Amino acid sequence: RGMAVDGASQHPPLWTGALCLKQRGLPPHLDPVPAIYKSEADILAKRRGIEPSELDAYKQAAISDPAKQAWLFQRLYPFMAPYKCSDGEWILPMATFNRRLATGYCAYLGFADDVSAFGIVDRDPYDPASAPFDDRNLALPIGFNFPSSCKVAELFEAKFLQKTALEWEAELEAAGLPCAVIQTWEAWMRDPDARAARIFAEVGGEVQLGRAAWVKSAGEYPDLQPMVDGAAAVARDRAAPPPAATAPPRQRPLEGFVICDFANVIAGPACGRMLAELGATVYKLGPGVPQHGPMVMMVWQAELHQGKHSIILDAKKVEAREVIQRAIKAADVVLVNKMDNQLVSLGLNREALDVANRKAILLQLKSHQGERYTRKSNWNGYDPALQGKTGLMTRFGPHDPAAVAREGAGAGVPNFHGVASCVDYLTGYLAAWAGLAALYSREVRGGEQGDWAVTSLAVCASLTQLTLQRGEPPPSAVGHDATGMTPHKRVFPVAGGRFIYGQAPEACDVRELAATLSSLESDAAIAHFENALGGALAVPVLTVQEIAALCSDGGSKTANFTRKRGESGWEVETWEPTWFCFDGAPLSCARPPAFAGADAPQVLAALGYSPGEVLGLKQSRAVVPTLWYAWADEPPREPLSSPVPPSVTAAHNVPARDLELLKEGLE
């Protein structure tokens, strides 16, 4: 069944799980679910400083005018919106989930003092005392009140006009600040670095997608070869036959294997969850001082912590580093989504693992890397940034496809496929595949030497577009009014503001069919395909919430929206993972998600620590309390009362008198 968004002014779905996700039990200060997940009333409550009628006027203007859509996008989410540069091209900064990156952008671009003077603060969102500042906190940049987000957008807008998009990209990435020049898919296929990295490869005289993942033990990979007579011409190494089976296969083939999961956000944690589905024991090792906000570290993990055992460690303390070393020595796979320099500083690079546990597989998810290492292989990035880099964003949002094809991405108004899209999940899946390949290879070789398996967001964002390797999609498949790749197999509007997807016969008059369907309710429109078009396929287009409601009765074998309650009291309603299927039976995670850090005593016991040693680690805070907050036997800390809030009656500027009151309140 398809997915639809309610109204042209809304962004595309983030991903099915997030739009349906329901969770209860987090402390109030750690449940800052952003406005993009909530109802219109909640959005207005969060977007303080703008009247409902004014926001509605902005939305209506954005629907009809692409330039105004870009303006509104920037002012709602200033740290992850496209901005025009001096050459007319778009640059996409990416700092909306990360405190260090948000403060880093403000400092590097030289407007940190302007932001501070406006009343925007930098406070630890995991401290209850910071709760009163959550609508103007650089640690939570996705949740700014409207005047604050407008101020930041105006500062970004003026700054980015000073240089070209390519100049900004090179400069910001060199400073460790993720961003992307937004370009078309065809421009991405011609990108010199993507070619050098073999993200694209020449095969039989044509350029196509290269390998999706790779392992170090394979050495230099041979050139890809064309298909021969419909079958792949693959040279097989038969020197090392697979070991003979000594027992029936297990339904969860990774039982007994241990994964150390150091990954964060979505792609890496999704990979860890998949390995848990396959039966592995997954230790989720969280950072002592998280830079990502509670939305990433809490809310998203309601889905991604399923099946894992969570512990939080302050790696600045010697005792915590010893825990990490014990976990690594027990691990079969060390899962990371870090850049190479970060691996070295954390002691998780391949050379360090060879000393600590040479049998361990290093499974790394990168942003820009391909099969071959290039100057951009260690660049930072997130799913949305790679959507911009690889051409996905140029197909979303309102623009003239012909103008974009002729003049480039700067001629359009790009938009996300989703803040966290299929790119993240596909990267997690291919990472699991790469890790399993490396693990199998280790076992075949005798299990004495680990490997280094890698995939990247850039590779997977490209893979989502594999059907476009010989050209851009037709105009009917571009923009927020897209209907489909062909005139006959497409989305059709029906009565009541609903849609269906139908596959009409080629001989059908599509305009006449569309006119007929527009007056029919959804069920009648689907019946029309059955009765008048020879049983042609048609299905309703549903929102993800509607799909969740349909799949919450347990009647589906592979799509179940279920309620889970963990020992820590966290109640979560989300999709039952079904990435893998054995003998017709889908797998799911063996245990519900746990609060971050809630499994620390059990993890430490499994690593050989005595009850007294566990108590000492807790008391020293080398092992950080659950949710970076408090252990279950500690009294919760109460937030401070709210200071005098700023006057937010104006959408762009706070009066000087009110600004002085704000300063007094903050002091």
Rg calculated over all Cα atoms: 26 Å
Distance from N terminus to C terminus (CA atoms, Å) equals 54 Å
Mean pLDDT: 84
- What is the overall number of helices? 26
Strand content: 5-15%
How many strands, what sense, and barrel or not for the largest sheet?
Answer: 7 strands, mixed
How do the strands of the widest beta sheet line up side by side? 8-14-13-12-9-10-11
Determine the structural class based on helices, strands and strand pairing.
Answer: alpha/beta
The count of β-strands is 21
Basic shape: globular
What does this structure look like?
This protein is an alpha/beta fold. The protein contains 26 helices and 21 strands. Strands 8-14-13-12-9-10-11 form a seven-stranded mixed beta sheet, with helices on both faces. A four-stranded mixed beta sheet has the order 1-17-16-15. A three-stranded antiparallel beta sheet has the order 2-19-18.
Key terms for this structure?
alpha/beta; 7-stranded mixed β-sheet; 4-stranded mixed β-sheet; 21 strands
What can be said about this structure in brief?
The chain is α/β, with parallel strands linked by helices. The protein has 26 helices and 21 strands. 35% of the residues lie in helices and 13% in strands.
